[in-house]
Amino acid sequence: MTKHRGYTQTPTLDFLGVRIDLTSGETSPLKLRLHKLLERARLAAYTGFGISAKSRVFKALVFLALFWAAGVAVPEPRVMNQIAGSVRHAFQRDLTQEAPRVLVGQVLGWELDVHWLAEWSALRALERVLTSVSETSEALTLEELRAARCNGLPVANQVIRSLGWQLQCHERALCRIDDSARTRIYRMGVDSPRILRGWLVDHHKLQATASCGRIVKSQHRLDPTLAVGFKPARPVP
Fold first, then answer.
1. Residue 122 belongs to what domain range?
2. Strands of the chain, DSSP E
3. Taking Cα atoms as reference points, which of 120, 114, 121 lies closest to residue 58?
4. What is the domain count for the chain?
5. Domain membership flag for residue 159
6. Residues in CB range of 67: below 8 A, 6 or more apart
């Protein structure tokens, strides 16, 4: 019918600065000028600022442009990896290029890790939506309104699933199971965001530690006649 009427058929829909793939449902921000962001990152590397001042430059001039649609759309992995490389280059006087990700996050702060920041921005966007003033409607219940809001944040929902957490829209809460098999609950708008930040940092620290080269590939010698150092158990990602 669309061909008969001469309508244009496209696999994507551009709406309010976001491109939606109508087949997979994936979203990405439009008009993201990567070369400009990389140029800003390059200039930040030569400012001579310390870690704190240089971090503020990145947050204001690079990360805001990357994650303005947090919760709804996120840049593709290629863009994220290029920005992550520019961050490492900018702080090469503080950390070498060979430094593992977990060390970079602990020294520079996880707010400069683009993969951590993408998830943190999505979670904070979800909290802002769920704790905003509810619209008055005679046709919809409060639970239905909150569920509709949750469905409008596909990236935030994807992040929650990847973390293994559960979202309770009607309770405005996030739940997770800790290492002791106890249920931990974060109540949006009630508990401090520092609790949620701690959850996310712990998750990324564990993932980054498990992916370190010395852990992925053991350097211990197998010859029983040679001295072998202490070999602790590998962390479970």
1. 33-213
2. 12-15, 18-21, 27-29, 166-168, 173-177, 183-187
3. 114
4. 1
5. yes
6. 74, 117, 118, 121
What are 88-93's contacts with CB under 8 Å, separation 24+?
A: 89/41, 89/42, 89/45, 90/41, 90/42, 90/44, 90/45, 90/54, 90/58, 91/45, 91/51, 91/54, 92/45
**CA separation for the pair 2, 7 (Å, rounded):** 5
How many CB atoms within 10 Å of residue 47?
11
Closest residue by Cα to residue 27 from 145, 122, 132 = 122
The answer to whether residues 145 and 134 touch, using CB atoms and an 8 Å cutoff, is yes
State pTM to two decimals: 0.77
Contact between 220 and 229 (Cβ < 8 Å): yes
Look up residue 37 and give its amino acid: L
Query: From the centroid of its chain, how far is CA 87?
Result: 15
What is the Cα–Cα distance from 90 to 55, expressed in whole angstroms?
Answer: 10
DSSP 134: P
In the beta sheet, which residues pair with residue 21?
A: 12
pLDDT tens profile 3-59: 666 767 776 666 666 666 666 656 667 677 788 888 888 888 877 788 888 888 888
Q: Would 95 be classed as within a structural domain?
A: yes
Q: Is position 168 within any domain?
A: yes
Tokens of 41: 């990152």
Would residue 230 count as lying in a domain? no
